[in-house]
């Protein structure tokens, strides 16, 4: 399942239509395998994997899957593999480029450690009650 942080960090480019981009990422995550995998009209990667690779790639900052790491930065095109469908993914930030995601992550860590030397990002971004489904995330903005 895909969970979104309530104070989602988002790229300036994507802020105007944030709900649309989040919905698109959700659709990429939930893409189902196609029924006719070995059709002649499909590309090679569609025949092997069975899913259509998304045209637009987003980069997300997520909670680390490894307890020794702080965060994961990954592209949404990776989510066509079944491994990600089995795991819960907690999204903290959404960006249009990898450099933008890494820069904002660096900024968050630098400001956190300069304000408090005992800053622990895993405790701040690790609580499950600060995450919601994308439908709940954007209905509060409309009211």
Structure description:
The protein contains six helices and five strands. It has 143 residues and is α+β, with helices and mostly antiparallel strands. It is globular.
Shape: globular
Q: Helical amount among residues, as a percent range?
A: 25-40%
**Cross-sheet strand order for the largest sheet:** 3-2-4-1-5
Taking the alpha carbons of the first and last residues, their distance comes to 26 Å
The main pleated sheet reads as:
5 strands, mixed
**Radius of gyration from the alpha-carbon trace, in angstroms:** 17 Å
Taken as a percent bin, the fraction of beta residues is 15-25%
Number of separate helices: 6
The secondary structure category is: alpha+beta
| Strands, count | 5
- Provide mean pLDDT, rounded: 78
Low-confidence stretches: 33-39
């Amino acid at each position: 399942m895909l969970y979104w942080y309530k104070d989602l960090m988002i790229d300036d480019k994507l802020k105007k239509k944030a709900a649309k981009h989040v919905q698109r990422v959700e659709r990429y995550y939930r893409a189902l395998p196609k029924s006719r995998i070995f059709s002649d009209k499909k590309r090679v990667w569609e025949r092997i994997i069975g899913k259509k690779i998304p045209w637009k790639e987003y980069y997300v900052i997520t909670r680390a899957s490894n307890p020794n790491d702080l965060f994961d930065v990954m592209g949404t095109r990776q989510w066509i593999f079944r491994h990600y469908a089995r795991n819960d993914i907690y999204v903290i930030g959404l960006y249009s480029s990898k450099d933008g995601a890494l820069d904002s992550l660096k900024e968050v860590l630098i400001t956190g450690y300069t304000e408090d030397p005992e800053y622990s990002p895993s405790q701040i971004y690790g609580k499950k009650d600060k995450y919601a489904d994308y439908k709940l995330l954007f209905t509060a903005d409309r009211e």
